[in-house]
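Good morning,

Attaching, inline, the backbone tokens for the sequence recovery test we're adding to the shared suite. The designed sequence is right after.
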């Protein structure tokens, strides 16, 4: 058999590769077909054609001009599919990139989303144009540009300065997206850290969170400085009168703690809207539910003295009849459960605690969090049984007198009455004053802003255990996280005090923040008083806000959102 000639061998090899070589020709034919359909009268056909071209990928590069025109199609699905196709093809020419960016302002957000995805898929060639788009006049264009750059990151580091500048954008969504994008660059975005630290004081809480998340990925441990006291005081002095007028809160007293000492007290407005008595440092307010942490301190001192056990069933000290599905549940309740609000009792029973109606247990004690004034009131009765003294008298002799708190009492007295403020409704009108002649550890405490601040200072400055002070060990137990509260949001604070999750300690609420735990308690009585206090054990700082208006809760929450990082 003769050997094949060189030419014959070449023809044979060409025949072997011929089927593979035919695919591009077939793809080219399909591309031409889809381009024709892309110009058809039927929107469904145009959409299908754009989709088909995208599926062909790089083989459909000759369709880029037609797809670019399709980005202006009157049908949203056609525009979506055309954008997606251009991304799949990898169309990186400037005309296409510009056309895709124009879709950021498309009235259909899904079209804008496809344009973002397309530019992100194209990657680095799209970065410079996206960085320029961060300065566009259209909010949507700037927001979409930041999103796209975040998807391209960590590539495209040349856009970092533009993203850092976008942190000052007037639109909160743009600021949020720019911060999130910078986080995706990680250490490469270190130059943006100072701007992100400033963003921790943004007016928008979500933006503050995004700044924290970005900083956590860029430079762990970076935190802004503690605000200077004069700046905090200046902000309080500017905000409080304006908020009082807006919210119709007649009187406010505020005390600020720095370095474990009382640093400043400010008094605003009147103690009684009718009599126009000015609020002073000696004006008493109802501390409302801020009574509970003071009572918790007394309870823990009894524990330290060995007269009470945090984890021993309270039924062994003083039995209580409960309404429950299981009679044995009552035997499970402990002082720890009550102070951390996991006892199963309601906030208040039907008809109120004064009438001693049936007291229910709504769930098995110790299994979950549910705020309960009734639990505190039951523990009060246990304390009174153990000490053989009424709460008001016991608290006065064992704590208030020892600390020099002469204007603090769990019950109304003739001596204090002239200095007790009047509560006011949401319209700023006076409410008939209540006289708490019977102490209730959950809400009847009378005190001044300064004296409550002095109590907090005492908590933060534990001395060697004596007859009235908690030891450092017991103080640490009080401020330790006992139960997570997934049902309650953290308090809105700026800067280093941005909250992450909420817990209950023993008597206090605990917000885990980016700089550590902040302990706080708020209060609101139907008599027209609202209040708030917080402190930071690590830094020795805190604040107490007392108001005599129903809208005081809005007032203190807005103050804390501005100065809560003190």
């Amino acid at each position: 058999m003769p050997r094949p000639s060189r030419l014959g061998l070449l023809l044979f090899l060409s025949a072997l590769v011929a089927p593979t070589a035919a695919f591009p020709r077939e793809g080219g034919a399909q591309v031409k077909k889809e381009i024709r359909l892309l110009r058809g009268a039927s929107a469904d056909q145009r959409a299908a054609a754009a989709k088909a071209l995208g599926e062909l990928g790089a083989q459909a590069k000759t369709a880029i001009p037609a797809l670019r025109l399709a980005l202006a199609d009157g049908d949203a699905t056609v525009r979506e599919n055309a954008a997606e196709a251009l991304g799949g093809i990898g169309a990186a020419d400037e005309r296409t990139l510009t056309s895709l960016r124009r879709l950021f302002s498309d009235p259909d957000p899904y079209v804008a989303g496809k344009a973002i995805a397309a530019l992100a898929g194209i990657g680095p060639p799209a970065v410079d144009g996206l960085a320029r788009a961060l300065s566009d006049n259209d909010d949507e264009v700037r927001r979409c540009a930041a999103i796209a750059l975040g998807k391209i990151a960590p590539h495209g580091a040349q856009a970092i300065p533009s993203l850092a500048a976008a942190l000052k954008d007037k639109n909160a969504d743009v600021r949020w997206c720019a911060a999130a994008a910078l986080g995706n660059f990680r250490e490469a975005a270190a130059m943006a850290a100072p701007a992100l630290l400033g963003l921790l004081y943004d007016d928008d809480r979500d933006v503050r969170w995004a700044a924290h998340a970005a900083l956590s990925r860029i430079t762990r441990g970076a935190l802004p400085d503690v605000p200077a006291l004069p700046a905090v005081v200046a902000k309080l002095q500017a905000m409080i009168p304006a908020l009082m007028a807006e919210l119709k809160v007649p009187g406010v007293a505020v005390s600020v703690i720095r370095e474990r000492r009382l640093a400043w007290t400010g008094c605003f407005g009147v103690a009684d809207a009718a009599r126009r008595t000015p609020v002073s440092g000696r004006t008493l307010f109802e501390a409302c539910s801020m009574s509970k942490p003071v009572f918790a301190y007394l309870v823990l001192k009894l524990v330290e003295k060995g007269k009470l056990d945090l984890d021993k069933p309270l039924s062994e000290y003083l039995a209580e009849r409960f309404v429950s599905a299981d009679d044995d549940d009552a035997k499970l309740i402990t002082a720890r459960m009550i102070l951390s609000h996991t006892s199963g009792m309601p906030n208040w029973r039907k008809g109120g605690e004064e009438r001693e109606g049936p007291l229910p247990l709504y769930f098995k004690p110790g299994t979950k969090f549910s705020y309960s004034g009734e639990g505190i009131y039951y523990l009060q009765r246990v304390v009174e049984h153990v000490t053989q003294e009424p709460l008001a008298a016991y608290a006065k002799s064992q704590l208030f007198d020892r600390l020099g708190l002469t204007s603090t009492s769990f019950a109304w007295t003739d001596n204090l009455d002239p200095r007790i403020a009047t509560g006011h409704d949401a319209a700023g009108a006076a409410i008939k004053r209540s006289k708490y002649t019977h102490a209730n550890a959950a809400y009847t405490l009378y005190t001044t802003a300064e004296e409550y601040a002095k109590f907090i200072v005492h908590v933060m400055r534990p001395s060697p255990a004596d007859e009235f002070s908690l030891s450092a060990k017991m103080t640490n137990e009080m401020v330790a996280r006992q139960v997570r509260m997934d049902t309650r949001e953290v308090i809105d604070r700026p800067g280093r005090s941005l909250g992450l999750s909420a817990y209950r300690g023993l008597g206090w609420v605990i917000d885990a923040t980016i700089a550590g735990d902040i302990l706080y308690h708020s209060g609101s009585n139907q008599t027209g008083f609202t209040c708030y206090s917080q402190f930071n054990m690590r830094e020795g700082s805190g604040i107490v806000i007392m108001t005599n208006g129903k809208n005081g809760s809005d007032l203190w929450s807005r103050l804390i959102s501005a100065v809560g990082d003190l």
